[in-house]
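Issue 218. Parser rejects a valid record. Input:
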Amino acid sequence: ARRMRLLLERTGTDSRLLLIRPERRTVVADATGLSLPARMDALPTGRLRDAVAKPLSVRALLTQAEERRRVQDLALSRGGRLAVRVEVDAPEAGTSTLVTVDALRGHEQDGARVRALLARLPGAAVAAPPPFPQPAPAPPPTFGASTPAPEAVAELVSGYLAEMRATVDGVVADVDTEFLHDFRVALRRTRSTLKLSRRVLDPATVARRERDAKRLADLTTHLRDLDVHLLGLPRMRGWLTSADPGDLDPFEAHLRRRRAAEHRRLARAAGTARMQQLLSDWTPELVRTAGVKQSAVTAEEHSRRSTSRAHRRVMRSGSAVTAGSPPEQLHVVRRRCKELRYALEMFASLHDPRVTKKAVSDLKKLQDCLGRFQDAHVQQAVVRLFAEEMAATGPVDAPALLAMGELVTHLEADQQAARQDFSAAFSRFARSSATRRIGSLGTDGSR
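Output the parser choked on:
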């Protein structure tokens, strides 16, 4: 999927989409009236939409590059039959003209002669079609094992802040839900990195920046929650057995009204000077305010201590869960699993990638179980709350409320199933081989 190219070609009043795939036939679809950004439901139904559905998912199509060109198609014949196609592609800006020569089967020598002749013309370039774009690799960390911990932390946080700044415009424009998701992932990494690094940074600086990060989290949480509910609604409709899927239409309409109001609130906040200050690269102060003793800790030492401490916290909280534990206790385990996940990933470049990958994989299985439990627990409360809001704002059809009640029943069953799976999931995570693996990335003697 990463090697596919999707072109929107406009010629006069006509528009078409071309999906170009290596070693496969190009798929063409009419694109009359299509404008970018465009989400999946704006694409014409058919083979092209089916082909991009999986890689595109909930993302919107964005313009990566735009050019105005003057294209002429020429044909050369031999014996009255088409032998060579020549496309002359001249951009409006710039001086280079691209000439593409396509010889039909059996006329390869004719094509070679045409290319040789055209290559002699001044100002013309004869080339193959442009290569498929390759995803830009993430820049590797520049710090090493002996880098002072405050400098390494500052580099990590600076990268997360850059990711947030890069997604803000997409969030405000409401291009697709993943811009906000990416923003919040970078924000969570920022908060976890600061929390895990309290012992190697100035306490006052960390406390102030943790408060700033929490403000951003509070500002974006409700909108992301509503996105999650709307994205999960098609799956929820499939749960219904007594009710009709269409009975949830009033619920969807209520969610969309709430989401529109939350997005307006977030968009207004994003344009303030306060937001710009929160997203500015304030990381140099993390290094500047660190003391001599804190700066003496290396990145490797900090990584090992953070991993060891986070792992001990997961083991303690997970081992304390019993059949009678309240949901909040499992939520604590989930939070501590996230901290351990970030501790493993923060300084992954300093350790054996195979060991880190397997340790993260072991942890992810436990996180998936806890995530199912937490999602079902939260969604039950949300569905009940929204049912009360809908009833309070006006008359609601009985079928809608009954359908929402059926959702709650299904979510209760999901929560119970995840709760029953927790013991086995935690036992797998706590097995001796997994514990030794994480132990090799940490240092048991740290406190």
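Fixed in the parser; the record now loads. The beta strands are 5-11, 14-20, 27-30, 69-78, 81-91, 97-103, 124-126.
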